[in-house]
Design goal:
The structure is a single chain. The protein is α+β, with helices and mostly antiparallel strands. The chain has two domains: about 230 residues, P-loop containing nucleotide triphosphate hydrolases (Rossmann fold, 3-Layer(aba) Sandwich), CATH 3.40.50.300; about 130 residues, OB fold (Dihydrolipoamide Acetyltransferase, E2P) (Beta Barrel), CATH 2.40.50. The protein is about 25% helix and about 35% strand. It contains eight helices and 21 strands. The strands form four sheets. Strands 7-8-9-3-10-11 form a six-stranded mixed beta sheet, with helices on both faces. It has a five-stranded antiparallel beta sheet with strand order 2-1-4-5-6. The protein has a five-stranded antiparallel beta sheet with strand order 14-13-12-15-21. A hairpin with a 4-residue loop joins β5 and β6. α2 runs parallel beside α4 and α3 packs across α4. Bound molecules: adenosine-5'-triphosphate. Adenosine-5'-triphosphate (ATP) binds next to β1, β2 and α1.
Length: about 375
């Protein structure tokens, strides 16, 4: 079921200050997709989710779920949360510690006075789905964090919601379990063909889980797109920087070449994708991700985007080295495969494909015009 959010604003007054938690948010969340709201702490993700659920009343705007308008400031509509047909999974699993798995999952059906036989059938089905069949009698307190989270998910699903909403549901799990649970979650949400709205500030989680991501900043949606598009060729500098590690090199566009442009930077001319058609003479920022930079011991200059540099620092992180390479006044961070023989102080050449780096505009709302962001 599609969710439409139109012109939603929500302000809080606290300690005599006005906080605009949501600023004229306009967003369409497509049906049957996993849609993630991603952004730094305090950008308004939870407030937006709570407005959709009905736990928060916006100061203006409209929210529709499918064909039904569930909130309209102008028309005085407010459908209470329990009538919006939504399921919700929170960061704290909020499962009942004094109940076993069956009773926890059955709870929403029991409170709706569903017949016993139907409850048994539906609980069995949903426990099977979250791979907790056989756990019915287990006390909730005798479950691992991941299992408790699955109980919370089963409880949200048992009432067959039209839409399921998640607020940082994996943040209490350790790193390994988080990774496993996120894979499972993606699989069964995809199989369910349900609209899922997921809130997180964890970019890897957002990339791994989502069909689409909306990146938020300061109460507004900055960009919406598929994970690969946002990662490889975002339209906004804030998004490019937030979604992954990025070297951002400022400069001025000098030449246009089809889909590409040459940008004159402090380390020389660099060719990159120019999807946004930034014009000659404009200031821009080139974004190149560490994993797209390659090292060569021999001189390959003459080819495109090849620079001579010196390894300034090198950190071993298990599956790779992270190296800071100094080129003139600029430091670029690269990911170096663990088998490459390289040491701090080495002189080498560094190259990256013009198709694997992209130009971003510098302008209103992008902040720090002309600021050198590659580290010095
Ligand atoms: P996080 O990732 O840290 O959970 P978030 O993106 O979900 O953050 P929100 O919880 O939506 O952010 O908060 C948005 C802004 O509104 C923040 O500045 C927050 O301090 C403020 N805020 C949220 N709830 C209230 C409230 N009940 N009273 C006052 N201010 C609030």
């Amino acid at each position: 079921m599609e969710i439409r959010i139109e012109g939603v604003t929500r302000e809080y007054y606290t300690e005599r200050k006005r906080i605009r938690a949501l600023d004229d948010v306009r967003l369409t969340i497509p049906a049957n997709q996993i849609f993630t709201l991603l952004g730094p702490s305090g950008c308004g993700k939870t407030t937006l989710l709570r407005c959709v659920v009905g736990l928060e009343t916006p100061d203006s705007g409209e929210i529709s779920i499918g064909d039904e308008v569930v909130f309209s400031h102008g028309r005085g509509i407010f459908v209470p949360p329990e009538e919006r047909g939504l399921g919700m999974v929170f960061q704290t699993y909020a499962i009942w510690p004094h109940m076993n798995v069956f009773d926890n999952v059955a709870y929403p059906l029991v409170s709706r006075k569903t017949p016993r036989g139907e409850i048994r059938e539906k609980v069995a089905k949903v426990l099977d789905l979250v791979q907790l069949e056989g756990f019915e009698k287990r006390p909730a307190t005798k479950l691992s964090g991941g299992q408790q989270q699955r109980v919370a998910l089963a409880r949200a699903l048992v009432a067959e919601p039209k839409v399921i909403l998640f607020d940082e549901p994996l943040s209490n799990l350790d790193a390994k379990l988080r990774e496993e649970t996120r894979k499972e979650l993606r699989t069964f949400l995809t199989d369910l063909h349900i609209t899922a709205v997921y809130v997180t500030h964890d970019r890897v989680e957002a990339l791994a889980l989502s069909d689409r991501i909306a990146v938020m900043r300061a109460g507004a949606i900055v960009e919406v797109g598929e994970p690969r598009k946002i990662y490889f060729n975002s339209d906004h500098r804030f998004v490019a920087d937030f979604i992954g590690r990025a070297n951002l090199v400022p400069g001025t566009v000098s030449t246009l070449e089809g889909d590409h442009a040459i940008i004159e930077t402090g380390i020389g001319p660099i060719a990159g994708l120019n999807s946004q058609g930034i014009g000659v003479g404009s200031e821009a920022v080139l974004c190149v991700r560490p994993e797209f930079m390659h090292l060569a011991a021999t001189d390959t200059s003459g080819a495109r985007n090849v620079f001579r540099g010196k390894v300034e620092t090198l950190v071993f992180v298990g599956d790779a080295y992270e190296g800071d390479i100094r080129i003139g006044d600029t430091l670029l961070t690269t990911t170096i495969p663990p088998a490459v023989e390289v040491a701090a102080g080495d002189d080498l050449f560094i190259s990256f494909d013009p198709d694997h780096c992209f130009l971003l505009p510098v302008g209103e709302g992008e902040g720090g015009k002309g600021k050198v962001e590659s580290r010095k």
